[in-house]
Amino acid sequence: MLKDGLWDVYNDFGMGICGEICADQYSITRQEQDSYAIRSFECGIATQNASLFSWEIVPVEVSGGRGKPSTLVDRDEGLEKFDAAKLRRLKPSFKVNSGSVTAGNSSSIRNMQELVTCAGEDAQVNVTTDSYATVNTKLDYGSSSLLFRKCSRIW
């Protein structure tokens, strides 16, 4: 996991440091990062509670192992554990004394991430539901990994 997504292979340090560099360069404060994360969690919770995307979720049965019962995963369990007050109290994770990126306001690693399968025309695919999208083109775009968190401000 560390080498596959959490490490900037171009600069040889963790992606959290890239987040710190981006926050410094664009003067994004800890409070702004926390507020954005809290709003994101609250939107996710409201969406999940209203079952707005439940039609897109395929429940997955996870073995309990060694005689334990299996568990049906059909929700993002991380949303149920969210506590805004705890998020605001977290210590910086990457720049200990002067950082602003924490485990709470940075990207989460989730067990309910989206799963998208793309296959060429000649691939044999067995699907039990109707497709609702077709990829007709592709676009590769990249920017400096140091600024991976850069995006337009939403509010």
Automatic annotation (TrEMBL):
InterPro entries: Thiolase-like, Thiolase_N
GO-annotated molecular function: acetyl-CoA C-acetyltransferase activity
Residues covered by the Thiolase N-terminal domain: 1-109
GO cellular component, one term: mitochondrion
Pfam families membership: Thiolase_N
Swiss-Prot/TrEMBL keywords: Acyltransferase, Transferase
GO biological process: fatty acid beta-oxidation
PANTHER family in alphabetical order: ACETYL-COA ACETYLTRANSFERASE, CYTOSOLIC 1-LIKE ISOFORM X1, ACETYL-COA C-ACYLTRANSFERASE
Stated family: Belongs to the thiolase-like superfamily. Thiolase family.
The protein's name: Thiolase N-terminal domain-containing protein
Organism: Erythroxylum novogranatense
